[in-house]
Amino acid sequence: MMSLSHIRRLEAESIHIIREVVAETRHPVMLYSIGKDSAVMLHLALKAFYPARLPFPLLHVDTRWKFREMYAFREEMVKRHDLDLRVHINPEGVAQNINPFTHGSSVHTDVMKTQGLKQALNHYGFDAAFGGARRDEEKSRAKERVFSFRNGQHRWDPKNQRPELWRLYNARLNPGESIRVFPLSNWTELDIWQYIALENIPIVPLYFAKPRPVVKRHGSLIMVDDDRMPLEPGEKPELKSVRFRTLGCYPLTGAVESNATTLNDIIQEMLLARTSERQGRVIDHDASASMEKKKQEGYF
Amino acid sequence: MSLLPENTALNVQEYLQKHQQKTTLRLITCGSVDDGKSTLIGRLLYESKQLFDDQLATLEADSKRVGTQGGALDFALLVDGLAAEREQGITIDVAYRYFSTDERQFIIADTPGHEQYTRNMVTGASNADLAILLIDARKGVLTQTRRHSFLCSLVGVKHIVLAVNKMDLVDYQQSVFERIVEAYQSFAAQLGFASVHAIPMAALRGDNIIDASKQTPWYKGPSLLTYLNRIKLEEQSSDAPFRFPVQWVNRPNLDFRGFAGTIVSGKISVGDPIKVLPSGKQSRVARIVTADGDLASAGKHQAVTLTLADELDISRGDVIASSESPPAVADQFEATIVWMDEHPLLPGRQYLIKIGPNTSNVTITDIKHQINVNTMEHLAAKKLELNAIAVCNINLDRAIAFDPYLQNRDMGGFILIDKLSNNTVGAGTIQFALRRSQNIHWQHIDVSKKARSELKHQQPCLLWFTGLSGAGKSTIANLVEKKLHALGKHTYLLDGDNVRHGLNKDLGFTDADRVENIRRIAEVSKLMVDAGLIVLTAFISPFRSERRMARQLFADNEFLEIFIDTPLAVAEQRDPKGLYKKARAGQLKNFTGIDSPYEAPEQAEIHIDSTKLSATEAADLIVEKILNRR
């Protein structure tokens, strides 16, 4: 028998991880952020339990600042796969009207994502949360285990991670503790795109190039997705053919100029790219080791 | 950088097709602190054009700010991403990096050299095919070089690249290189690697990393990257027997009962006869189910769902295997253990063992010998400290299907988990099953515990008194026994001091001996409860783990923990045997409450506050509670 191709091997490894969590934890949930990694993770989970339904709910920690096309896509996926999706928006953040423009990316991300995530996990009593993070994304993520242990305050202690040998994952927890699980740890950006193409996985149309209204701000092309975005003096949205390599909150995610309208184009473009995927993410550039700090505080 | 040269006439599909057929080499870098592992990987990524412009810009900025190369590019900063790592200039945890060449894909685990983080090095090694072992040319073979080599051989890494680094600091002298290689070869000969290849290099300057260096004209071999591209990897032979540990039972409706898991060796086709272990039941594969449709056959690494022709009771942890060559089943093994926790491994203490999806209770019954990683000498040991490696006998509470680790990593590799903290505290490999696990069987006895206790008109149980020395355990236990005896109950009191005069006279007061002391008491009590008696034990029994282990030997409602709660100050004041005085004077080592901990029960069945109740009142309360329990 032919040995498995690289991508099929990654697929099998991820399915193994996802099943292991369901077998060993009490109340797992899958964090769903609507992006391409979430799409792949959801696809793998559906495969892992076939013909049974997905044995856990999905959780979207919403900041209210996702692109409109992302919300539409989320609803379509819920309908298509008959998903149990829980949406959580930090009510305190809403009360204070936290937003990336007045409060800056760090406060916005901390309140709406990190604090929101912790609230939701505590509220539902989830003891395991799948996340779509990959080790090739960022230096501190490269250091993270597949099963990432968090204490009662959801803190990550990078100096004290559980040894993770072979395919033996230790999911045992004391009350209040939880784990984050990253089934896509070993995938690279290229693997994700290839798999999306191979399996025909639906993704948000924002990944494909199209004329969109953008302004250039602090070196990033920011798309004006709705009229909540205050324009600075002299700024005038321009229609440019752009697409997104990564999707987050729209005011914090830079677009790239592109004419890639098919998966083939996208892969070709990424093979020739000279900048990394997260280059467009404003939150990564707050300060050195900022992702690590966010993770220690409970960011997924 | 980009993954492809600019303006190449690119056929994406063709590229991807080729990319998919590349083999993946999983490797680690290891060796002692400061020998340049992170720098080597950084250099490898940089030279092979795997860095994006923004990553390079960040590296340039970081090198100026926190670099150790006087502002020049500090490649170590590419991988040492944690704040604490940059602070100390060391690697704390494994970083995984991915890159590819035209020939291969690589997953590199950069593992720490610091002895304190040996467990993270083993983590990286467990999935690796090859190890790049770095040696500082100025220092030669060090303890960590030997430790890491031994750990590599233990987890089955087959190939070693001996990277003799920092050659620039010894003027690229051939004799230095050869001396180191010779010293290493003579040590490594006993470790059974399939290949050891040595390369002289200077990671900081890039010598012999990608291209042959002009500085070492005497070295005729390939550069590191060339070697990594070319080395042949033996895949496990395709005729290995079929092994499928059941991970999850898929039961969406009454008509479907599938067993989900990953094939860890061999292959399977629809209709093949299989055997389920440990039960030994047989059937045939009816379907190989996947979300993409049923398969006719499936092989190693595939995550599938099997259904069988017969309705068998199979659960998570069972192994579905080829019926011609099934794995062995046993509950006692010889294993090699690497200990990874600050708290030492104590023989007799119960831990959890996870092999594949199977989790069971396990005790290390015997440390046969610890291994000195410098000399490979065998040493006697009563416990294992952090980073110790030892050959041990282990005893599981149930039989499992297994293969020796050398034949099958997934069927013979295990982790040990502490039952209280839930931390992963050790890892190990099974060598073989002990003969006695197959030769000792339970003898069936016709007169049962029920029959024996009915004759005595009582419900047997064990009253486990625990508390500090001088808390009043023996006094109260003695009163309880007198009262029960007066009521016509059949009892026996096992007292700490008395037992140490006979059954346990060979045991001292180290943590390891205390664990063994309690294990024996628990086993003896179990026999006595089986005989129908009400048994009382009065031992300090300071550790929660051992009290829990004792509890697990008994049925629910048969084990009653009685906590005689006396503050240390009060017990010390009473000091009936003058022991506290001795301990305070430093004449008595390992004394509970003074220089050895007491872990108070969290959920004792009976809690006696001896500052509020007299011994007689306490005894009355206990007798009332046990006679009225149900």
From TrEMBL, chain B:
Catalytic activity: sulfate + ATP + H(+) = adenosine 5'-phosphosulfate + diphosphate; adenosine 5'-phosphosulfate + ATP = 3'-phosphoadenylyl sulfate + ADP + H(+)
Domain of life: Bacteria
Domain Tr-type G: 22-237
Keywords in alphabetical order: ATP-binding, GTP-binding, Kinase, Multifunctional enzyme, Nodulation, Nucleotide-binding, Nucleotidyltransferase, Phosphoprotein, Transferase
Ligand binding (ATP): G467, L468, S469, G470, A471, G472, K473, S474
Amino-acid positions noted as binding GTP in the UniProt annotation, renumbered to this chain: 31-38, 110-114, 165-168
One Pfam family named in its UniProt record: GTP-eEF1A_C
Function noted in UniProt: APS kinase catalyzes the synthesis of activated sulfate.
Subunit text: Heterodimer composed of CysD, the smaller subunit, and CysN.
Family designation: Belongs to the APS kinase family. Belongs to the TRAFAC class translation factor GTPase superfamily. Classic translation factor GTPase family. CysN/NodQ subfamily.
Protein name: Multifunctional fusion protein
Organism: Permianibacter aggregans
